[in-house]
Amino acid sequence: MELLAFGDTGWGDELFRATLMTIAVSITAMLIGFSFAAIFTPLKLSKFKFLNLIANIYTTVIRGVPELLVIYLFFFGGSGAIMFVASMFGYNEYIEINAFVTGSFAIGIISGAYSTEVFRGAIQSIDKGQFEAAKVLGFSKFKQFYKIILPQMLRLAIPNLSNVWQITLKDTSLISVTGLVEIMRQSYIAAGSTRDPLFFYSFAAVLYLLLTFISMKLINKLEVKYSRGY
Amino acid sequence: MDFELMINSFPKLLNAAVITLKLLSVSLIVGLFIGLLFAILRLNKNIFINKFAYGYSYVFRGTPLLVQIFIIYFGLGQIESLRSSFLWVILKEPYWCAIIAFALNTGAYTSEILRSAFQTIKPGIIEAGKSLGISNKIIFYKVQIPIAIRQSLPAYGNEIILMLKGTSLASTVTLMDLTGVAKYIISTTFKPIEVFIVAGGIYLFLTFIIHNVIKFLEKKYSY
Q: Chain B closest CA to A146's CA: distance in Å?
């Protein structure tokens, strides 16, 4: 137990900070994922075949390629790509992006592909009459979406989004390969310096279980909230 | 774009894909048995057996695969009695550690898939078997299992693809699978995009084949 003590003697405070980091990366990645979904879901539902194709390539490639490979692409290619863009604006110094940004972006793109599929499914399963009724009542396109489609879509999407959240949370463990100190990386460091990998990796597993358990409870509450009236 | 590198790295990556497929097939076969066993335990009326099976699938589905591999590869070697037992022959090999972790992981997901498939079988079908005087055992093997397999094909197809992606984690325990070799080439040439296109292309090709095989099976066994 003294291994988990807070302060200089134990790894308690380090692991606590690492847990906060995991939560921070997961939430950032999820939000980046939502912004990707906000772009690609309309493309998927668009009437134009070309736009469909772009969105389909995005979701198929990302969901068919291992997360680790995507992370390596960003880890090794990230600063190169940024420097390339910067050099077009005449900035030629070396740019290093930090592990948090690379990691959240890589996981965010993955999570976005799953979210896109969830939102597409949710919008498609809304009764067609709802769209027509909104049109007949003279709602503008914008109001139609925010007042009628979005609330219904969220109700349908939340159970599946909770799966996406679980996937995202677990995927953040892979960012440890880039050196970002989250739960996995911190356990790796602690296991290395105390020569007690069994304890620290098991403890990491417990932390992940706690995170998934607590987030499930919170999401269930959201689900109840958005199912009012059904 | 360095096309020469792409062409040169293709045979290396293809070779590595063989290891990926080996890891995938062995862990899927073992995982299927584990999954079937735990699905049957989940349907057991004894509350302890039931809770045990639920706990297994909860833990393995609630933690990242990476943690599971690390516990088995780095953690188990620490137990002195394990090191001196015959099991150490298996556990000192990263290859078998990865397969154990993958099999236990996919076993947990498979047990959930099969359980829900068993539960969606209409009671009328089982009652019909009983009224024909067929024993419970034969009903289980000849009626419930084939129907459950058909029911779970689409979900199991997804699980195979998830597992294909999961095998990439073998590269974290020194195995040179497709992702491992890709990482090696990237870190020696610093050409991530080219290697990503080739390696990702191989993964997508494998996913495409698995997807179509499952689709074919679904059609063949549809009723």
A: 33
